[in-house]
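TEACHING EXERCISE
Course module: macromolecular assemblies
Task: Read the component lines below, then compare them to the predicted structure of the full complex.
Student: A.B.
Group: 4
Components provided:
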Amino acid sequence: MTDKPLVNKRGQTEQEYLRTYDASQFERPSVTVDMLIFTVVDEQEENYRKLSPKSLQILLVKRGEHPFLGQWALPGGFVSPRESLEDAAKRELFTETNIQNIYLEQLYTWGDVGRDPRMRVISTSYMALVDSSTLSLQAGDDADEAEWFRIEDKWLKETKTATENGTVTEKWLELRLVNAKEELSATIKITKTIANRIVQVKREIVDAGNIAFDHAKLIQYALERLRGKIEYTDIAFALMPELFTLSELQQVYEVILGKELLAAAFRRKVADKVLETNQYRKHAGHRPSKYYRFNPEWMEQS
Amino acid sequence: MTDKPLVNKRGQTEQEYLRTYDASQFERPSVTVDMLIFTVVDEQEENYRKLSPKSLQILLVKRGEHPFLGQWALPGGFVSPRESLEDAAKRELFTETNIQNIYLEQLYTWGDVGRDPRMRVISTSYMALVDSSTLSLQAGDDADEAEWFRIEDKWLKETKTATENGTVTEKWLELRLVNAKEELSATIKITKTIANRIVQVKREIVDAGNIAFDHAKLIQYALERLRGKIEYTDIAFALMPELFTLSELQQVYEVILGKELLAAAFRRKVADKVLETNQYRKHAGHRPSKYYRFNPEWMEQS
DNA sequence: AGAATAGTGTCTCTAAGACATTATCGG
DNA sequence: CCGATAATGTCTTAGAGACACTATTCT
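Instructor-supplied answer key:
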């Protein structure tokens, strides 16, 4: 940088400083990544004319070791010294699903003390979105005891109280994760405090319902983020196969948002984001629908 | 939980397992928090009739030790074993500014290897928003070499290339941090890859321009998040004093978004979020403006 | 034929953009 | 009076919501 080497108060150059630096002087926490792997799958439908309803699913693994032995947890693991956080997330994703190159987004880093009874653990959660048609090729392979759960949440109750300089709103939610074999149900309390024009949100687990660690909280948070992001970005396409009909796309929006959308408005909204093909989905007992694909020219803002 | 205690494959109960657990078996990274502390201040204005223009500022500290000795860095420090991530952020904020109970939000966790030449460091960045009127009371106190910098960014150039199954957009930005005494200028490249309907964004420092570590990247990211959030949340109020005029509020939006807004539309938009007072800002060489305060009853969606 | 979805047309309503107009001060 | 900001009125435009209507298939 300059001709004269920079020295610190003890007269050391950078090389000297680094040579004598003791990296072990601070006690360090363990760092892990937790994966929130979502997909949307078709449920069974007996009436051949009707569209099969879709459901949002999340991947969990059964714990084979203490703590929380036998309970269900998010896939994840320790970040090794030589890999970046994102590489660790990709590695965990690959070992769990055998899939690469899918949508992956860092969500939040959970750093409360006491999250893990063994030691201090700080963990960063990543959300991955998988197209279920890719997935079905290798469902239930080597992964011991990894299973998909249908995910739903239910509003339970809400209270709002006035305080000296603002309000406090408490909201209770039930998070339900359902499988052919298992049914997990957790209760989470979300407290929103408004004081002195500052909004703060806190999440607490009221009942973990057989979900290990604080993972019920991480799942609820991810679901909220997924809902928020699907409205103003194009992440929904990461859940779709290469070719899809507009009705299928709309179903994906509906199952994530948990409400029905009007077809006319929906089609107007996505019109610029998709490209027509000349293929049709046929043999469905009703008018065939055109297949579309994602339009990569569509530039989302940012 | 049950009468028979759960045991793992080695026949251990949870108590036995935890007693024999070796917490030091994995090599662990250091974890730090980095603080992005923003405020909006009035610049000088000679014409007594005109409103003083506002500028967005960020707090930096001058490094007194290797590495990056003499360069400017974000305030921050190590997370200690007994405090949560958020507590660490609050502690750093307090030691740096003497302020508590302000807006604080976790932004992102940076986990690339080689971010710090001393050792593996993973750091979580937190954004804090400060009302500058509170701040002026204790500006430039004990904090050695902490200073506010006016922050601006400038679009430099953009390229868009078609690839096999999507597009790649590269955008170069200049980040300028200006002070009475110093002027830092960094260049950042943002690469946005769209492949197979999946969007990925990567940030790289092209020229760190006397900003320590990868902090230029963290600052640019925080600025982008601040811009995004001010549009769909009410965080702007965290930057305002208790009483403010609507023109002042509009100025804050304008300086953060970097564009002018139409007064009529702006007033319609914030009308429900504020409460009138019967006080006026006078002696300004023009029609007095009414003071408003934040309306805590205004519920933002979430 | 009829049950179902696919796809379009169009009216209404709301919110944002644009811009003109009035109000009010300090000098 | 003048220069400046404060505050409101109103026309236009864009987009979402609502809903009716037409098109097309398979058993």
